[in-house]
């Protein structure tokens, strides 16, 4: 399987519509790939909190339309990163979109773990509640977003739902870049799955981005890693390695669930 991660820069000098056009062109250039993955909130910037409401769009809004067309033109499975979605009730969500090679929407995922503690995304956006997996030819894709990476129980639940490849679009800050690569490798090792983690370059509302999109195999080996600037990271991997790894080192079979809480 050939995957391309598009690590685009999100800078204030470019409009959201201009970035949509540029991203659509980059997706079309990946014709021949099996899967293309984009970053989190690339139309606004993950830290441009004041833009979330102003740039929010319905699920089938301009980003949906542009990315559906780009996926169809390129003939690729496209994880189109995430957009600030305004739901019918007016609430905002950080929502990822996955398109088939025909341009049909295969899945939408509302981010479960919102970053910011008592500010930013955590108070501006609603929390998703549903796990999302997508069956691709040769693998099942589990979908998570950025801050989700810190919560291993989410990824174990995705594996229980059949995930073999984990896609994680992000807008991860440079100051915590060491966590980004560490957590991506940890999620791959503990779940014996491929991790495709796609970040952004540039600066979001004054916050320098980590870049360093990364692809990790089920043993935790880094197959490819981008630098800090704009880049398309392309890697070939064998999805069948997941089953081989789980058979050769069947750690997942030794999980102990339902442990009792100690009495005090």
Automatic annotation (TrEMBL):
Keyword annotations: Hydrolase
Signal peptide feature range: none
Gene3D superfamilies in alphabetical order: Carbon-nitrogen hydrolase (3.60.110.10)
Source organism, top-level taxon: Bacteria
Residue intervals of the CN hydrolase domain: 1-239
PROSITE patterns in alphabetical order: CN_HYDROLASE (PS50263), UPF0012 (PS01227)
GO molecular function: hydrolase activity
InterPro entries: C-N_Hydrolase, C-N_Hydrolase_sf, UPF0012_CS
UniProt key word Acyltransferase: no
Family recorded in the similarity comment: Belongs to the carbon-nitrogen hydrolase superfamily. NIT1/NIT2 family.
Protein name, as recorded: Carbon-nitrogen hydrolase
Organism the protein comes from: Streptomyces pactum
Phylogenetic lineage: Bacteria, Bacillati, Actinomycetota, Actinomycetes, Kitasatosporales
């Amino acid at each position: 399987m050939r995957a391309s991660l598009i690590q685009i820069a999100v800078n204030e000098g470019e409009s959201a519509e201009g970035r949509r056009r540029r991203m659509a062109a980059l997706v079309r250039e990946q014709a021949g790939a099996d899967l293309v993955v984009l970053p989190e909130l690339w139309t606004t910037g993950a830290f441009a909190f004041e833009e979330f409401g102003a740039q929010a769009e319905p699920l089938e809004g301009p980003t949906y339309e542009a990315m559906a067309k780009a996926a169809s033109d390129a003939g690729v499975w496209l994880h189109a990163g995430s957009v600030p979605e305004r739901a019918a009730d007016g609430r905002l969500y950080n929502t990822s979109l996955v398109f088939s090679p025909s341009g049909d929407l295969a899945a939408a995922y509302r981010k479960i773990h919102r970053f910011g503690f008592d500010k930013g995304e955590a108070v501006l956006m609603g929390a998703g509640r549903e796990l999302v997996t997508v069956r691709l030819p040769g693998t099942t894709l589990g979908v998570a977003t950025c801050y989700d990476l810190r919560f291993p129980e989410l990824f174990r639940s995705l594996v229980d739902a059949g995930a073999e490849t984990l896609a994680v679009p992000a807008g991860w800050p440079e100051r915590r870049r060491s966590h980004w690569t560490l957590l991506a490798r940890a999620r791959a090792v503990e779940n014996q799955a491929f991790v495709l983690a796609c970040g952004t370059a540039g600066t979001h509302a004054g916050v320098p981005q980590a870049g360093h999109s990364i692809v990790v195999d089920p043993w935790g080996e880094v197959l490819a890693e981008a630098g800090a600037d704009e880049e398309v990271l392309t890697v070939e991997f064998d999805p069948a390695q997941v089953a081989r790894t789980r058979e050769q080192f069947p750690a997942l079979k030794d999980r102990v669930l339902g442990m009792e809480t100690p009495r005090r």
